[in-house]
Amino acid sequence: MRWRKSTYSGGVNDEQCVELGRLGGGVGVRDSKDVAGGHIRVSLGEFAGVLDVLKRRGRGSLGT
C-alpha cells in the first residue's frame, strides 16, 4: 500500500501527523510517527463524514 501524509501535517516536528492509504472500499489511517503501530480502516462514507466535520469546524479541529 502506498501511504501519503496529510496536507494538515505541519512537518518534521509536528506532533499530530496522519498518513492515508487507499484500501479496497475504504481508507487506511495511521500515525506517521508510529508506522509499525498499525492502521485503522474506515469506509469511504465514514471518511467523507470526517472530512465534512473538518470543513465545517475549521482546519485541524475534531474537538467538540
Automatic annotation (TrEMBL):
Family annotation (InterPro entries): DUF397
Domain DUF397, first and last residues per copy: 2-53
Pfam families membership: DUF397 (PF04149)
Protein name: DUF397 domain-containing protein
Organism: Actinomadura gamaensis
Taxonomy of the source species: Bacteria, Bacillati, Actinomycetota, Actinomycetes, Streptosporangiales
